[in-house]
Model the fold of this input.
Amino acid sequence: MTEEKKDNVKKVVKLEKKKKLADPVKASCDKASQEMIARAHELDVETIFDRNETLKPCNIGAQGTCCKNCGMGPCRLPLPKGGIEGKDERKGMCGATANTIAARNFIRMIAGGAAAHSDHGRGVAEVFLSAARKETDAYKIKDTDKLIDVANALGVATTVEVDGEELDRDIDEIAVEVGEVAMNEWGKSEGELLYLKRAPEARYETWKKQGVLPRNIDREIVEIMHRTHVGVDQDYKNLMKQGTRAAIADGWGGSMLATDLQDILFGTPSPLLSEANLGVMKEDYVNLIIHGHEPILSEIIVEVAETQEMIDYAKEKGAKGIQLSGICCTANELLQRHGVPIAGNFLQQELAIITGACDAMVVDVQCIMQNIANVAECFHTKIITTSPIARMEQDSVVHIEFDEHHALEDAKRIVKLAIDNFENRKAEVMIPKHKTPVVAGFGAESTEYHLGGTFRGSYSTLVDNIVNGRVRGLAGVVGCNNARTRHNEGCLTVIKELIKNDVLVLVTGCMGIACAEEGLLLPEAAAVYAGPGLAEVCETVGIPPVLHFGSCVDNSRILIAAAEAVKAGGLKDISDVPVAGSAPEWMSEKAISIGHYFVASGVYTVFGVTFPTSGAPEFQKYLFEDFEKMYGGMWDFEPDPIKHAHKMIAHIDKKRKDLGIDKARERFLMDIAARQEVEK
Ligand code: BF8
Done:
C-alpha cells in the first residue's frame, strides 16, 4: 500500500471513530438528558456517553483479578472460559492467588470509599469545632436538640450538678466538647468508635465476636493500605476482616458523624417541596450550579446568593435574578435543607453545561468529571474549583480556595464571578423543559414523625404496618449512575418493581435524584406505582412511596432508621428486619464501602451492572454466602433490574417468614412468572 493510501485509510478510520456517538435514547431514559446528548452531538461536544462507545473496560480488571500493587505486574488473571474446574491454580508473580488479588482490590475499594466519606466528615468536624469555639462568624449551631442527642451518643455530659441540683449545661460548652470528642474519633490511640453502641446490642456483639470493632477511622483505612501491599496479608478471609472493620468505621463512624454534625450546623432536614432535572435552569437568570459533596461551602453560597445585594448586582448585569441548582450529593444536601432545586445526577454534569446557560459551576470534592472543564471551554461556563485536594489541570479552570475562616468572602467572590459571566454567554441557550416536583428532606427523625406522629413519636406505626403486611418491608436503594448502563433505568425499574410489591423504598445519592426526576418522590406517585398496601399507608400519612434520605454520607440515616425499627419492633438486630439494600447503577468506591457496611450491619445487599470480584469465584462465594452466617447480611449481584428487585423481595419475604408474619401478606400473591423469575 502506498504511503498516500495508508494516510487515507488512517483518515477514514479516524472519521469512523469520531462518528461513534452515543444513541441518546439508548444512553438515558431521561428525556431531558436525551435532548442534551443530541444537542452535544449538534455542537460537536464529546460527553461520557460518547466515550462509552469507544472506550471499553478491561474485563480482567472489572472482575477484580488484575493486581498492580507492585512493579512486577500488572499480573492479570483471567477467568478461564467455562469457569474454574478443580483447584484454582492461577497465580501472580509473587504467587498471590486470584482470591488474594480480588480481596485486596475489593478492600482497597472500601478504603477509597471510606476515606472519601470520612475525610468529608473530618472537614465538617473541623468547621464544627471552629463554629463551636466562635472562631468563625459564618457558621452557627442551628439544631440544639440534635446537639444534645449527639452529645449523649458521644458520652458528652449535657447537665452539670450545682449545689446538689442537676442543671442544663451551657450549650456552647457542650458544642465545644462534642467537636473535640468527634475529632478524636479519627485518630484516637485507644478504645473503639463511640457510635458503635448506637447499633442494636446484638449487632455490636456480632462485630465483637468477629473481631471487627473499628478502633479509629483513619487507622482502619491505613491498615488496608498496609495489608494490601505486596507480601503482607495473603488470606482473603483475613483481608475481608479488615475491609469489614473499615466499612463499619465509615457507616457508623465517618459518614454518621458527617451527617450528624451537618445537621447540627445547618439544620436537620424535614420534608419540603422543590423541583428536579435540567429544566430547573432558567434562561434569563444567572445559573450557578453547585456540584460535589460537601455542604460547608455551598451552604454559604446559598446564603450569599439570596442576599438583595447579589440579586441587585445580577439585575444590573441584565439578568432577572440568580438561579441556584445542584448536581450530585451537594445537590442532595441543599435540596433537603433549603429546597434548592436539583439540576441532575452524576451523568448529567456535562449536560448542564451543554444548555449554554450555566454561567458557573462550582465544585468541591468527589464525582466531578475532569471533562466538565473541556465541555465548559466550548461555552462561556466558568468551572470553579474550591478544594485544595481537588484541582483540575486545565488552564480555563478558576481556583478559589475555600476556607471556613473567610467563608463569606469566598462565597461572595464565587457568586459575583457567576454574575459577571452572565453577559459572556456565546452559544444559543437550549434548556430542556423537563422538570418534576419533588418532596424531599426525609430522615430518621422525620420518618419517626410522619409514621408515628407527634403523639407517638416512634417507629411503631411503621412496624405495625410491616407486621400487618400493608408494608411488605423496607429497601434502601442507593448509589451512582454508571455510563456502562442506561442512565437511571436500572434504578427506576428496580424501585417501581419494589413499590409495586409494597416495599417502602428509602433512597440517597444519585438514585434519589433519578427518582426525583421520575416523579417518584411525590405522595401522588403511590396511587400510580405502589401496591395496594403501601399505597394505603402512603395516602393515610401523606408520604411518597419513595423517601429521599439525602446524600451518600446520609446512608447513615438509613442505619439509624433501621436501628429504630429494631427497637420499636421488639426485635434483636437489623438482620431480623425485612429489609434489603441495592445499588443498581453503582460505579464508585464509595458505593462499595456503603454496600459493605450495609452487609456488615446485617442487610442483604444487591449490586447491578457488574461486580468487582466475579473473577475469583471462591472469594465471591465467601461474600455472597458465608457472610450471611457471620453477619446475617450478604452481598449479591444481579444486572437484570426486575430479577434484582425480586431477589430483594424474596429476601424480605424470607425475613417475614422467620418472624412469623408472612401469613398477613397472603392476599398479595405474586403471579407465576414473577415466582419463576425469583426461583431462577
Ligand atoms: O456520593 S451516588 S455518583 S454523587 S458516589 Fe457520586 Fe455515586 Fe452519585 Fe454522591 Ni455517591
